[in-house]
């Protein structure tokens, strides 16, 4: 563009209408996706937190807690609420207390028939396809749970990979190794991967690494305390110095609009 034309355009764009028009063309001609991969949590993210599956998982976890501490479900619930803010998962907490039967815990919390608690999500498959982006799953549950849920939802074939609690050596989100294992599986990086989860402590872990996260829904749990080992390690693992950021959505179905907003596109 020659200087004379630039001057004329600067004058023209001083009106409100022209500024709006300039913004439109700027977006239109410089639009580029900032993110090239979507990393989804699964439970209470791909389906609503109000589902019976969430209630079932919580109840079965409390049964394990009650059995380990020789108390009733009410006592187990109170004890877990007090202690869980220091740990990434109920499993990590129980292991710290001396529980050794990891596979027994996972089998009880995630029985073979657990998918019966989950209602179909008729909009989900079409929505995920419409995103037209590579996608993968990162879950603190075992792979067999992910297989059952994704099959019930009819979307298993849409994800490039599933990273589960065993892939993370039983140190799940927000331990940095969990996120890095998920990225390694698909050859992605944290800067161009958008992470979506319903739990604040897990989006906090991603953000501590310098990534961008979407916190889904309004039942997000409590953030971890400063002394939580997982968050200490996540902060140490950020060697780039980049500052991450969290955005909020009521559900993943807002993602399409967000990806085309200024937050979801690259700067020119």
Write up this protein:
The chain is of the alpha/beta class and 268 residues long. It folds into 3 domains: 30 residues, no CATH class; 158 residues, HAD superfamily/HAD-like (Rossmann fold, 3-Layer(aba) Sandwich), CATH 3.40.50; 55 residues, no CATH class. The protein contains 12 helices and 6 strands. β4, α10 and β5 form a beta-alpha-beta unit.
Précis, in short:
The chain is an alpha/beta fold.
Secondary-structure blueprint:
Blueprint: H1 3-12, H2 16-30, E1 37-40, H3 52-69, H4 73-83, H5 90-96, H6 102-109, H7 124-131, E2 135-138, H8 143-153, E3 162-163, H9 176-186, E4 193-197, H10 200-208, E5 212-216, H11 229-237, E6 245-249, H12 255-259
Parallel strand pairs: 1-2, 1-4, 2-3, 4-5, 5-6
Helix pairs in contact: 3-4, 10-11
SSE pattern? HHEHHHHHEHEHEHEHEH
DSSP helical segment count:
12
The overall average pLDDT, rounded, is: 88
Shape: globular
Indicate how many domains the architecture comprises: 3
| Distance between the ends | 17 Å
Strand order of the largest sheet: 3-2-1-4-5-6
Helix content: 40-55%
Number of strands: 6
Structural class: alpha/beta
Would you state the CATH class of the largest domain? Alpha Beta
Largest sheet composition: 6 strands, parallel
């Amino acid at each position: 563009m020659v200087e004379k034309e630039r001057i004329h355009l600067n004058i023209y764009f001083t009106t409100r209408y022209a500024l709006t028009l300039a913004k439109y063309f700027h977006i239109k001609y410089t639009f580029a996706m900032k993110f090239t991969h979507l990393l989804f949590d699964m439970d209470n993210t791909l389906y609503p937190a109000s589902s019976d599956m969430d209630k079932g998982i919580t109840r079965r976890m409390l049964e394990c807690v009650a059995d380990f501490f020789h108390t009733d479900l009410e006592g187990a619930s109170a004890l877990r609420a007090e202690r869980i803010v220091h740990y990434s998962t109920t499993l990590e907490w129980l292991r710290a207390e001396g529980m050794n039967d990891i596979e027994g815990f996972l089998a009880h919390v995630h029985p073979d028939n657990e998918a019966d608690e989950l209602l179909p999500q008729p909009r989900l498959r079409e929505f995920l396809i419409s995103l037209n982006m590579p996608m993968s799953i990162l879950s603190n549950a075992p792979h067999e749970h992910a297989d059952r849920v994704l099959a019930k939802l009819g979307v298993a074939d849409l994800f490039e990979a599933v990273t589960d609690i065993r892939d993370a050596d039983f140190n799940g989100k927000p331990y940095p190794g969990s996120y890095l294992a998920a990225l390694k599986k698909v050859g992605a990086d944290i800067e161009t991967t958008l992470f979506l989860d319903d739990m604040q402590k897990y989006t906090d872990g991603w953000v501590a690494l310098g990534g961008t996260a979407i916190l889904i829904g309004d039942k997000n749990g409590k953030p971890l305390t400063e002394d939580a080992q997982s968050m200490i390690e996540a902060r140490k693992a950020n060697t780039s110095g980049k500052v991450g950021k969290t955005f909020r959505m009521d559900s993943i179905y807002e993602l399409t609009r967000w990806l085309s907003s200024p937050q979801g596109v690259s700067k020119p």
